[in-house]
Amino acid sequence: MQFEEFESFGSDTPPAARAPGADAASPLVRLQYLIDNTPAIIYCTVPSGDFKMTFVSNNAYNVLGYRPEEMVADPNFWFDHIHPDDAPAIFSSLALVFVEGQRAYEYRFRAADGAYLWMHDTLRLIRDEQGAPLEVIGSLTDITIRKTMEEALYSKGQEQQLLIGRLQEAQNQLLQSEKMASIGQLAAGIAHEINNPVGFVNSNMGSLQKYVETLFGVVREYDAAIAAHSPPPALTAAIAQIGKRADLAFLQDDVTDLVRESMDGLKRVKDIVQALKDFSHVGENEWQVADLHHGLDSTLNIVSNEIKYKATVDKQYGQLPQVTCLASQLNQVFMNLLVNAGHAIKEKGVITIRTGAEDGWVWVAVSDTGCGIAQEHLNRIFEPFFTTKPVGSGTGLGLSLSYGIVNKHGGRIDVASVPGEGTTFTVRLPVVPPAAAPTGAG
């Protein structure tokens, strides 16, 4: 089928304006009219590697602005007008037309005005009676409007996905906040229940310490009285034997140590209870003036079991002013950073906490000597659900929630990490956050 027999190239009259007229009875003229006015450009090429065009329908002028004869005259016209970004994928698979018999492509084609139009191109191989390739027939349709709509829909979909992600992040942070509030209520109840028995045990231990001191004072006075009155040797020997059997010297040293250690242990319990009470206010939304060092120390008591077997804590506190903040929420940030630092240390290391203040800002830096964070992960660590921990070892919400809390305070979190050497998170906060600053009247 050789369309070039129609000899329609180079007509000066736009094809859409040429109605069949008196020649409508001619099948070839009618066919020419239909081809020239169809939305698709019909073309033929030689069945060889260069795909030189041998026929192009007249409507190419309406669609692309090129005369069919100039398209046919240039053997590289088709190749030269495909967008450079689209050409490699087409050229690498064009030979499949001879295997499959038909191929379809969507690509950008440069029109006469220099603009690129999106085209849908269907190529079909025609064979002769012996099965040898005869020619390739193509149908080229302008799909620019459809592509523009698809891109708009894709962009809209991306915006919706971003909005959905933000809503999910907000929901997850809300759930996390509610979870922490529930844990805080539980901690408050536990602290209250522990506080009562600790109170009377501590009081009893204080009394016991006084009684032990009094008792051993009596024993010392007995010894002094016996020595002063020179009792019979038999009585002196009997008293000495009683003291030896009881090992009074050891008892005096050991009981004193036991009481002192017990008092120290009770003090630790009281500190933990106080830390639980401080932590129990995680749901409060009242801005207050707080001592960040006190918050750090309370948080260290809470997380000590997480890190004490893996790291020593080096506190390098500077001079900090009182900060207006949501104290319990900042404690949660400190807890997340300390727990993460502990998890980053595989065996034994050091967690360093440094603080300082300058120009109306305070900063708290938590450093570890752990495994560090890969460079490609640094820009994602504050994303919800992103975690470098093994599956089941973390939710990926800790740093995201911390970022939100610090941002609420008008501050920021910076991170610096060297893989294999360690990581430093630095929380920077204004002494008086914008959200807590009093607004003027008027």
Automatic annotation (TrEMBL):
Residues 103-155 form the PAC domain. Its EC number is 2.7.13.3. It comes from the Bacteria. It catalyses: ATP + protein L-histidine = ADP + protein N-phospho-L-histidine. Residues 189-433 form the Histidine kinase domain. Residues 27-101 form the PAS domain. Transmembrane segments: none annotated. Residues 1-21 are annotated as: Disordered. This is histidine kinase.
